[in-house]
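Exercise: predict the fold of this chain.
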Amino acid sequence: MNLPKVIAKPLPPKVYRTESVGISRKTHDEHYKLYMGYVNKTNEIRDLLSGRPMDRTKANQIYSDIRALKADYTFALGGVKNHEVYFDSIGGDGRPRGAVADAIVKTFGSMDAFMDDLYATSMAARGWAWLAYDHDEQTLFTYLGDAQNTFPVWNATPILAVDTYEHAYYADFLTARARYLEALFRVLDWRAINARYEQLQRQ
């Protein structure tokens, strides 16, 4: 197995625009360090899968080297991908626009109904909430996850990610997740969200 190195993406400067709603520069800087940790661990596991002598005949669902590496790989790589969508989803003016806004209204009935659903999904999630496009049904849906690697749905691509782990808001809002979400939603970057949606439509 020969896997390339994951190259970390720089933290988009636009994320600091969230300071206007109370999400601090320090929170983003510390958050980015966590993202870098996921990048490093993803590369470490890739190196182990590529170079470690491993008896694959001993693969076992209770414990085996291959099980441990493959399971933890999904957590590490999920942390990379989730955070990249999250950082790209924020730092805007919070005003929905473009084809994605039309698709949201078509699916949820109104933008207000969608925002209510996204808020409730984010409050119910232990780690993540996503707005994702289902390629099979060609529809949008708000999913939740309790960790970096739960609960994936095959052939659905996230176009908006909300990090609901405490590290995303505790320094600024303590345990008030609701206040964090209200602030975050005011600075969603709908241009970036729409760009991801339109790219999927072109594909």
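Check your answer against the key: Residues 25-51 form the longest helix (27 residues).
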